[in-house]
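hi support,

uploading two proteins for the ticket. first:
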Amino acid sequence: MITIQQYKPFINSLDFDFLVKKSAKEIIEHGFGYDAFLAHVLPEIKKTERAFILYEDGKPVGYEFMLIKYRKANTCFTYLLPEYRGRGLGSFLREFSFMHFWDEYDEISGPIKLKNTASIKSIEKIAKKLGLTIDKNYYLNQEGEKIEYTRLIKRPD
């Protein structure tokens, strides 16, 4: 059975920490310095409780966190253990997260590697479903890979 829990200190922090350690390599590949991530980003996530943990049959298998400032949400990272990818779980988690914080932001943004076509398709599908406008820009990361920086913007009511 698939379940999602919001990160809560002292309740599921060991599961969250386990997944963060598993995702260290990918955190670094996305341009975060792992030490800087642990020192600055992780404490902010834990303080604001803007992270969700995905479970399958009680086992932590993925997470997503957001940093929200000035009504702009930066979906910094969505991670699934490799053996759970390709099943739509990342899209499910991402949409759940977007919907949960819907009233807190006007814009969602974040980088996606162009080779991560599943994530790009997921974002486009969610944007269409939620009635968001998509704005894309591109840049090269430190390794010379092309990155799509996607902004999803709420349409005025």
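and the second one:
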Amino acid sequence: MKFFKKASAAISLASIILGSQATFASMVPINNPSFEDPVQGAGGFNGSIPGWNQTGQSGVWNPIGWGPYAFGAFNYIPDGAQIGYLNSGTVSQTLGTDVLPNTTYTLSIYVGNRTDYDPGTAYSIGLYVGGSPVAWVTPAVPTPGNWVDLTATYTSGPMVPLSTPLGIYINYGTQGQLNVDDVTLNTGLGTAVPEPSTMIAGAMLLLPFGSGAVRLLRKKLQAA
């Protein structure tokens, strides 16, 4: 009986070593993600966005009190009181986070449609790694005065060069004004392939229990 208990414990531990997948998720820090800095009074705007790199004409805007709606040119604001706007150019941010192997990154960003400035769908928003785009949202335009939450997902491979920075880019399209808010980036571990040393460690646990334990482990992993 003790033998079978030990074998069962070894199989369980080996399956964890060889077949488990972490389900941890975390949020990657972004500077000024909701464009609340610098603070603007109702209807005020500023031509700089602290924490972001800018080309062309862009900035932060507090639309409350502007226009006929409760939130100015919008029916609501996704987060806080201010938003980011682009009339041309690009807004980007290289994050203080390097890409990790076997990791899925999900970018979320709200795009708004002013009641008087349809942004069209020629804009582009996404993630870049080491300066090269790797994922981008599918552009969409909500109904006037409203917002749409867009996402882009990138999963890194098992081998990632050291000190490879992750970044976010927002490119103006060809018409109207591009309004954005509440930028977030979440991570979760992708499916990892066990390293050879890890596979050896798992196999060593089963040596005292013979080939039957190996077959049970194989079935356990296939069912996972």
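thanks. also noticed: The two ends are 26 Å apart (CA to CA).
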